[in-house]
Amino acid sequence: MFGFIVGTIAGQLAGSWTYWRVRGTGPTPTHPEWWSATAAGLVAAVAAAVLYLALNVHIWLGGVGSSRGLSLFLALCMGICQAVLFRGRPLRPRTDRAA
What is the pTM of this model? Predict the structure, then answer.
């Protein structure tokens, strides 16, 4: 379970960081929304996959002898969630609010 938590958090942070780097934090985006979301999803999936495989999440889910493909599938699902549902989250650019 530790590997799942670490991989998920790292994937979400990496995807969010990528989203804001591709999109830009200015008033007008430098790239379209779909381009930023796609890049974020890909980076989140790769980051999560590396950690899921390294920390044997597939064994936690399916038991001893389970395929590494289970970890890769879970990472792919996390990447899709980042691209579709969590665009730009959990990181958000700071906005200066006038008091």
Answer: 0.81
